[in-house]
Design goal:
- By secondary structure, the chain is an alpha+beta fold.
- The protein has one domain: Glutamine Phosphoribosylpyrophosphate, subunit 1, domain 1.
- Helix content is 16%, strand content 41%.
- It has three helices and 13 strands; from the N terminus they run ββββββααβββββαββ.
- A seven-stranded antiparallel sheet has the order 3-4-5-6-7-8-9, covered by helices on one side. Strands 11-10-1-2-12-13 form a six-stranded antiparallel sheet.
- Helix 1 runs antiparallel to helix 2.
- The chain starts with 5 loop residues before the first strand and ends with a strand.
- The mean pLDDT is 96.
Length: 192
């Protein structure tokens, strides 16, 4: 089954995976305190504004993951003291779904000291939920938050588990986990 890009958010661990039929030549790199999705060196040139973006950032006691440019304003709002639910809802509503050929939804998750949240904005809805167990939301097919069996306990395991899930067209994945010192991150790129 092809579900596109997705996040899995649990109380202390989260993951994001790029799955793509159209732009598979991408990878995640750490850059200036963020995990950034971008084209590989051999990727064909494109003017598509949706293929390069920060997919994971941390600020204070929060981590934000998502499938596009909305990760940055969510992170900024959380850093300014917005509750995670409000930061998700405000940024997702403001940026709306992607205006591409598929009306691709935007998905995001936030881990904070107060809880974990997941959100999606589709052409027909904006959903933001607090989660107490691992919860998945994807751009296609599984585009409403749903409880999901996800056993990862650290960032490396989260990235690997997300990448290895039995959904079609895995490209790369990122994992984030709460630690005693903040958050750890990890990446799995399909070419490695």
């Amino acid at each position: 089954m092809y579900i596109g890009r997705f996040v899995v958010v649990g109380p202390d661990v989260a993951a994001y995976r790029v799955s793509s039929r159209s732009f598979p030549n991408r990878r995640i790199d750490e850059r200036e305190g963020a995990l950034t999705v971008g084209p590989t060196a051999d990727a064909p040139e494109t003017d598509n504004p949706y293929i390069a973006y920060n997919c994971a950032r941390t600020v204070g006691d929060a981590a934000v993951l998502g499938n596009g440019s909305h990760v940055d304003p969510i992170t900024e709002k959380v850093g300014l003291g917005y509750p995670a639910r409000d930061a998700l809802a405000t940024a997702l509503l403001s940026l709306d779904y992607e205006k591409d050929d598929y009306d691709t939804p935007r998905v995001a998750g936030v881990l904070t000291a107060e809880g974990a949240y997941v959100g999606i904005v589709r052409k027909d809805a904006l959903l933001v939920e607090e989660v107490t167990e691992p919860t998945l939301v994807a751009t296609y097919e599984k585009n409403s938050p749903e409880a999901f069996d996800f056993a990862a306990g650290d960032a490396a395991a989260a990235a690997r588990e997300a990448y290895d899930l039995d959904f079609e067209h895995a490209v790369c994945a990122a994992g984030v986990a709460r630690t005693d010192d903040g958050f750890e991150t990890a990446v799995v790129n399909g070419d490695e």
